[in-house]
Write the structure tokens for this entry.
Amino acid sequence: MTGKRLVGLRLVALPLAALLVTGCPHAKVLGPQTSPPAPPSGGSGTVTSQVQALPKIAVDGPILLASVTSAADHSSIEDAAVSLLGPCITGGYSSPAGALEIGPLATGSFAIRAQASGYLPWTGTIDLPQPRATQSLAIELERAPRVIKGTILAPSGHPLADARVQIGQSWTLSDSSGEYAIEAPSAGTVEIAKAGYSPATSAGGPVTLSPAPERLDFANLPFGQPLGSEFSQLEALLSSDGWVVGQGLADPTVELWASPQVVHSADVQAAQGFVQGGGKLVVLGEWGGSGDYAPGAADRLLLPFGVEMDADLLRDPGSQLGRPEWIAAQAGGLVPQGTVDMFGAASVFAAPPEEGLAYAPQATFKVQDLSEIPVAAVRQVGLGLVVAVGDASAFTDPYLAKAANAAFIHAILDM
């Protein structure tokens, strides 16, 4: 994927017993992490869940010094995307010298993935058991034996953008012209998945996908209320487009968690199998005063995929929507440009390679941070997609009536 990068370090929501180990600092934050401000008033319910603050940010954690080179001639590889998933999620892109310094990190074991244009992806693990230690890692990427190129089309002949393409450990999305190019091993065909169409395989060149109905399953009881109480317009909108929407659906193509309160181990395992099978997981945060949202529950679903929703609240002092709790997020990239309304949104993070979908305005702040902050992001995992949106407002009645909100949601679901 190409687009706006969300590079930085993010904390994993750890159980209380694990808070004694070192943690990863948030990017641009100096000093201890604090609990977020109280949820804004005026919502349709009361937020009663608590956020456990870490006692400190451990700046004495281990540091990883990675070098990314070509296995053939040991030349440096620039702009290789490197992600680390473990006690915390983080990553970055290599310098012109092929170097990347990541840290301080939490102690523990990390799964590492590195990829660069023209090379096959590299995966491995590394143990970082000692605080204050600097550890080096040499990553050598093999040149791809071939690059498969193709064009993905609808039956009408129109190109299909954002179709997921995978072969082996390589994956990518088709562009606005329906075209893709993917580094491939010497044998095999690509698998293709796209919302609204049946999966397909291809050896390259043009391929036409067959339409298939989409099935969106609400995996939890949103805000603790019946489905129609907050999402009736979303149901109606999708149903008019031929979608099947409900709860407990068999064989869904999209699984949506709205304001999750409790997520069990079985839910996490099911979500992993769903995404690995080519499904789309969408998780919505909710700090706007509705339900019993628990950031830790959202992150139990997201973290295995290298995506995180922070336990924070965003405020825009220059809000054009009447109150600083209302964030006029600027959407773009894989979704249409426009302003998406979010109320008391949380920030999100995805390990590289990643794509930002919507950003809070420049003056938005969270505790000690002041910057343009991502509030929606997507990360491809094989044929699957994982989307995190820091607030559910745009999906709910009556805010779905706004054209930009509807376009944003349609784009996410149609990827």
Notes: The chain has four helices and 27 strands. The domain at 146-208 is CATH 2.60.40.1120 (Immunoglobulin-like). The radius of gyration is 21 Å. The first helix runs from residue 228 to 240.
